[in-house]
Amino acid sequence: MEDIKNAGEKLGGKAKEAAGDASGNDHLKAEGKTDQAKASAKQGVTDVKDAASGVADSLSDKK
């Protein structure tokens, strides 16, 4: 579920960036880039959590 939420936030950021670029609004463009970076960072955390969970599962299976 987090993957979908992060993808939505990233898409929203891209839309803001494009709108800012099209309208010449540097603030909106920068806000869009920031939103995309936040979504990417959140996705990275989710990926690390998933990997750690997989390692824990594989270790418990070896017992």
> Helix count?
2
Tell me the number of strands. Answer: 0
Radius of gyration, CA atoms, in whole angstroms: 17 Å
> What is the percentage of strand-forming residues?
under 5%
Helix content: over 70%
**Overall pLDDT:** 91
* Helix vs. strand class: mainly alpha
Shape: rod-shaped
> First CA to last CA: what distance?
30 Å
Order of helices and strands: HH
Characterize the largest beta sheet: strand count, sense, and whether it forms a barrel. none
The residue ranges in which pLDDT falls below 50 over 5 or more consecutive positions are: none
Task: Supply database-style keywords.
2 helices; rod-shaped; 63 residues; 0% strand
